[in-house]
Every structure is written in structure tokens, then in C-alpha cells.
Amino acid sequence: MFMPTMKPSLITTFNANLTKVKPTNILVFDREVSAVPGIVKLTVGEPDFPVPAVAKQAAIQAIEADDSHYAPGTGSTTLRQAISHFLADRYDLHYQAANEIAVTIGATEAIYASLFALINPGDEVLIPTPTFPLYATMVEMLGGQAVTVPTAAPDFVLTPAQLEATLKAHPKLKAIVLNYPANPTGVTYSAAQLKALATILAETNLIVISDEIYSELLYTGHHVSIAQFLPGQTLILNGASKAGAMTGYRIGFIAGPAELMQKVNMVHSIMITAPSDPAMAAAVPIFGSEAGQQATLEMKAAYQARRDFLTGALTKLGFEVATPNGAFYLFAKLPAAAGSDDVAFATRLAKEGRVATIPGSYFGAGGEGYLRLSYATSMANLELAVTRLTQFLAKED
């Protein structure tokens, strides 16, 4: 069989920024431990629930109606109206469907389009850590520099003092990325904490890229967006992947002031032309119907029960767990007897204990000595994981 081989001298022709991009440790580690026979995986940040029936039916109806032509680049009018309703109804945020909302190919494209619209070579972007590593990767791909600021347990939130110090030390800062409820910690910001940060940011020209993809999975209290306090400088990122268990449908969105969205949409429309019609149809009831909201609430109740079980079990085993009020992750500090090498511990736990987690250091500074455990899996799997973890720790002593 003929297999094409690239001309060797072409190796020098690629975008130089790609040399800064390293393989994602999370994916590499997950792939390696997945080869262990019978392993229980607490690695994947993906809902284990089926797509709600109301969303499936909407997609089927769109297909049967031959909804198969180019949609507007910013997404179907129906979906943008549903998103506008969703933001107003849930969070008292008011964005016009016509020119302040764009439907993206998942939140991932939303992150990239937002950063692309802002970053010039050498620009700096503030990213509190530990956090989802893709933010820094994208900044570096675009020729920018990620300025990471480690946050501290147990809150894992950026403080006003840290923000002020970073602003003074980095005059080239162009933007700040916030993710809350957070991956990997599950913690979030209170209204008071966000207001304090917004008060400082209002004196700057920084754009806030606020990734709120887990906003519907908040267990106590009510999610508040920093856009409440800083609407003129904020781009909100969200989507159907987590709240609707629709990761494969790839429906996200960006909302922001029309002038900001005009620039973001220039990037967005060139990248994708338009989202998929049936996928957008499926997302409409997730954002715009009581049935969609009820489906999310039922999933959230199950996640909360899993969180409570796993938090209690890990605490009894000597882990210190960050208070997870949202998303579906626990960020657990290793017991003192286990040492602080999270990569080595997670590797042994996978190969010898047959429980797969993600080392906390993969999420940046401040994550060393922690494990991220996803409870987006069945209670039966969580119970088996705790049993195996208990046995593994007993052998480690």
C-alpha cells in the first residue's frame, strides 16, 4: 500500500507558533491509563447522561423538515433568541439576539475566536491557575503570552490583591480569562468576589473572557456572571455541552457588546461559515424551554449526590478536597503519607489500583500535589473507585 511521506525540507515551513504547543498532558495520560484492563475512569469531563428527549426530537424534526442549508454565520435566529431568553431568565443578562450573540462550534471555538479577535504578537493574557490548560495553549498559538497566577486552596479564586499586583507587573496585558464554576476545582466566585474584581478591571482596558460553561451546574446559591458588573468589557462563553449533555453536538455561544461581537464575528464566520442546522435545532429547547431546564435540573441532582458521596469518601481517606459548588469535578490534595508527586501517584493508582484520575499539576501552577476526579460517571463506578482507592492506599502504607 502506498503511504505518502512529507518532503523532509517542509519541516521548516510551518507556523512558528505551533512549536510552542505541546501535546495535552490530560489527553496523553488518559489514553495511556485507558489501556489498563478493567480500569475505572474518573478522568473525562463529559456528562454520562443521554441527550434529553426534547433535544433529540427537535433535531429529528429539523432533519425531516430538510433544514439543511447554510444558516446565518452567527447561528439560527431561533437559537439566538433562545439563548437571549436563557441569559435573561437565568442570570438577568440582556443581550440582543440580532447582534450581541453568536453560536459557535462548542465553547472551544468560542474561546479561540475571542482570543484571536484580541491578541497581537506579544500581547499578554492573565490566566488564574489551576485551570483548563487549553486557554494558555491557544494564547501561545496566537503569538501571545500567558501570564499565569496561581490561586490558593481552599477557595482557588483570584483575589483583588493578586489582580492589582499582576496588572502593575504586566502592562501588556490585553485580556483575562475566568472560568467558573471551574475546571478542575469545581469552585466558583461569589457575587461579592466578582464585583471586587470588576471594580479593578473597570479602570483598565482589559477584556474579560468569562467561560461559564458550567453555570447551570451550580449546587448551592445562584450563578452570577461578572458581566453583571462589567458588561462593557466582558465576553460571556457558554453552551449546551454540559447543561444539555450534548458534547457531540458542538453548540456553544459568545455574548457581548455589539462592538466587541463585530470583531469576534469576523473571526468566527471565517473559521466555520455556519453551525450545523440540526444541532442548533436540538439546542433550542435546552436554552428556551421548561422541558430543557427540567432535564438539566435532573442531571444536576444526580451530580450533586455523586459529589456528596465522593467528597465524603475522599475526606475519610485523608484527602483534602476543595469545596466544589459546581461543575462535576473534585480537586483533592493527596494525603500527607502519599507525598506530593501527583503524576507518580496517579500513575501508580491507575496501573496498580485500576482507578484513573488526572494529576493536578497538569492544570498549571497551584495544582501540584492534587488529583482531579470527574464524577460524570455512575454511582456504581464511583463506589467501585472508592473501594479500589481504599485498597490501594492500604498497600501504599
UniProtKB/TrEMBL annotation:
Residues annotated as signal peptide: none
Enzyme Commission designation: 2.6.1.-
Keyword Chaperone set for record: no
Enzyme class: transferase
The entry's keywords: Aminotransferase, Pyridoxal phosphate, Transferase
Family: Belongs to the class-I pyridoxal-phosphate-dependent aminotransferase family.
A Pfam family recorded for this sequence: Aminotran_1_2
PROSITE patterns from the UniProt entry: AA_TRANSFER_CLASS_1 (PS00105)
Cofactor requirements of the protein: pyridoxal 5'-phosphate
Keyword Transferase: yes
Protein name per its UniProtKB record: Aminotransferase
PANTHER family: AMINOTRANSFERASE (PTHR46383:SF4), ASPARTATE AMINOTRANSFERASE (PTHR46383)
InterPro entries: Aminotransferase_I/II_large (IPR004839), AspAT/PAT-like (IPR050596), NHTrfase_class1_PyrdxlP-BS (IPR004838), PyrdxlP-dep_Trfase (IPR015424), PyrdxlP-dep_Trfase_major (IPR015421), PyrdxlP-dep_Trfase_small (IPR015422)
All residue ranges annotated as the Aminotransferase class I/classII large domain in the record: 39-389
